[in-house]
Amino acid sequence: MRVVGLHADVLVCTSAVWQTTCTIVRGPSSVEDGEGAPVEAFVIDAPLLPDELEALSGVLEHVGWPCTGLLATHGDWDHLLGRLAFPGAALGCAETTAARLTGEPGDAARELRAFDERHYLDRPHPLQLGSLQALPAPGRLDIGTGELELHAAGGHTAEGMAVWIPWARVLVCGDYLSTVEIPMLAPGGSRSAYRATLERLRPLVEEADHVVPGHGAVMDGARAAAILREDLHYLDTGELPLARRGAEQRRIDAENRERW
């Protein structure tokens, strides 16, 4: 797992599998600021491998940030594994995601077991989501003396949210704007909703210093804007982006077309 700092209050961990990203954000006010506010930090999404999840607590301990909450950009199982690293932390997600997870009890745990069996992985505990904190998107979430902005992000699935960290100018967008993966229409997703999400994210991308996709490299705003244009072109024409035309992306494209 690779860990990089994007800002004094933002770290990104990238998994060795699927280039899955996990973003750790600290509230803009801490005891070091002399304001007396406690340090708060949220872990957004999660890496995949057992040793990577185990290392997350060490990353937070190294920088002196407590995990005061978990956030998931959407309800796909690979974005919910923060509960394995921090089983006592509350898990927040968009109201639409909470509805999906409540309506599909046990699905994420079953999909994780299937992944682990396929790759011969052992985990010390099964995935248990526990109670969920349903968050409005669009909406805001307090962290320290600052606020995270939550933006609705459907299309990849029928639910989800992107997280804008305004004081750091970082956009955590879930499974959108990937450098390695074309727009993927999972069950419940749709081309029109995906396109609407990209248009909704466009002004944030233009303002961002960094954009963190769910899978792939962290980008500056200019590179993310180019990916956004490529993704819109793909959704409009079906033409694969030049840098994303490998066998796996062609397989995803074939599945997408069944949902168009």
Explain what this protein looks like in three dimensions.
- This protein is of the alpha/beta class.
- The chain has a single domain (2-259), classed as Ribonuclease Z/Hydroxyacylglutathione hydrolase-like (Metallo-beta-lactamase, Chain A, 4-Layer Sandwich), CATH 3.60.15.10.
- It has 7 helices and 12 strands.
- The strands form 2 sheets. A 7-stranded mixed beta sheet has the order 1-2-3-4-5-6-7. The chain has a 5-stranded mixed beta sheet with strand order 8-9-10-11-12.
- A hairpin with a 2-residue loop joins strand 8 and strand 9.
- Helix 5 (191-207) packs antiparallel against helix 6.
- It is globular, with a radius of gyration of 17 Å.
- The chain starts with a strand and ends with a helix.
- The mean pLDDT is 95.
Q: Can you tag this structure with a few keywords?
A:
seven-stranded mixed β-sheet; 260 residues; Metallo-beta-lactamase, Chain A
Short description:
This protein has 260 residues and is α/β, with parallel strands linked by helices. The chain is built from 7 helices and 12 strands. The protein has a 7-stranded mixed β-sheet. It has a 5-stranded mixed β-sheet with strand order 8-9-10-11-12.
